[in-house]
């Protein structure tokens, strides 16, 4: 998250007010450890960073509630039946934010980015096969009011997918 969040800490790792917490050094260490292993126990994290299990649990819950992080299972789409993935470059004639909101509602789109440059929006899509991808693009994405043009960049092979970039 780009915006700074504030919190007071009573010294025991537990925030003492209702303000969203800061991504302080302790929270950064927690995030880094969870990026290495999202199933790691709060007891184990606490031992490594010097907090109680309850303090770690509270910090993690607050970061989840504040939208600072998510804990999810990440799969290789190819291995779970989605044989086609693509990046879609979208040129919009009209309200870019409206188009982005509409795209977010399509379950086969895993992220939507408003960008500057050749395209107004980039969206990553996944589908079971070529026919499903054609239906997704032709009958769902291109039907959204304001979309002027789309360009598909079909993935031939997923070489790398990382989520361990850490925190700053």
UniProtKB/TrEMBL annotation:
Basic and acidic residues composition-biased segments: 1-11
SUPFAM superfamilies linked: Dimeric alpha+beta barrel (SSF54909), Winged helix' DNA-binding domain (SSF46785)
Phosphoprotein among keywords: no
Keyword Transcription attributed: yes
Keywords for the protein's UniProt record, in alphabetical order: DNA-binding, Transcription, Transcription regulation
Domain of life (superkingdom): Bacteria
GO molecular function: sequence-specific DNA binding
Listed SMART domains: HTH_ASNC
Sequence segments annotated as region (Disordered): 1-21
PANTHER family: REGULATORY PROTEIN ASNC, TRANSCRIPTIONAL REGULATOR, ASNC FAMILY
Protein name per UniProt: Lrp/AsnC family transcriptional regulator
Species of the source: Bifidobacterium myosotis
């Amino acid at each position: 998250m780009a915006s700074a969040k504030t919190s007071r800490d009573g010294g025991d790792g537990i925030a003492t007010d209702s303000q969203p917490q800061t991504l302080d050094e302790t929270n950064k260490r927690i995030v880094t450890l969870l990026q290495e292993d999202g199933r790691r126990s709060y007891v184990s994290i606490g031992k490594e960073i010097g907090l109680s299990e309850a303090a770690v649990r509270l910090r993690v819950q607050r970061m989840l509630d504040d939208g600072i992080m998510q804990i999810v299972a990440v799969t290789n789409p190819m291995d779970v039946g989605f044989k086609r993935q693509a990046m879609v470059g979208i040129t919009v004639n009209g309200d870019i934010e409206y188009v982005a909101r509409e795209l977010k509602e399509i379950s086969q789109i895993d992220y939507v980015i408003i960008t500057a440059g050749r395209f107004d929006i980039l969206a990553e899509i996944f589908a079971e096969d070529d026919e499903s991808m054609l239906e997704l693009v032709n009958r769902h994405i291109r039907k959204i009011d304001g979309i002027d043009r789309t360009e598909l960049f079909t993935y031939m092979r997923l070489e790398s997918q990382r989520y361990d970039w850490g925190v700053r």
